[in-house]
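Many introductory courses stop at the sequence. We go one step further.
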Amino acid sequence: VPKRGEIVDTGCGAGLMSNLLALASHDRNIVSVDFDLKKMGSAHDSSLQIRNVQFAQADLLEWHFPPADAVLLIDVLHYWSPEKQAALIGKAADCLQPGGRLIFREGMKKRSVGHALVYAAEKVAVKLGHNPRGDGLQFQTRSFYEQEFARHGLHRDESVGDAGLGSNRLQVWVKP
């Protein structure tokens, strides 16, 4: 994430990442959005003394993504159908300024014990009401995501395997 510029944190939950990024550099302006009203309340309360972060409660599919130097799509897409995931990737890519980065982390669908663990953990979080039900859990393969990012003109800059439990993978995509 660049040290300065406009940052969009999608599906920010209680705002931990947004607050840490805002505190790490006062030259960043962070706009964070999540659908969950309760999580947005926690995010807002946790940031009362932080001036360079704003939180918005909204549906990402309907929300207008502002121009950004970086967009975070961290563990958020798997709650939607593949068509909606592709639409969100498009919205995120379109709002990026030239040279902007899209930081993406997601559980990649594959037949493995690691992915079974990710799926089980998410299923429990949804059942307990901690995470939204959305369209149900709809993890996609690594090739699906890579094709979608490339289709929207982004180039992969970096990819990190084992970015957390199981099948989670972190990728950084850049808009030329």
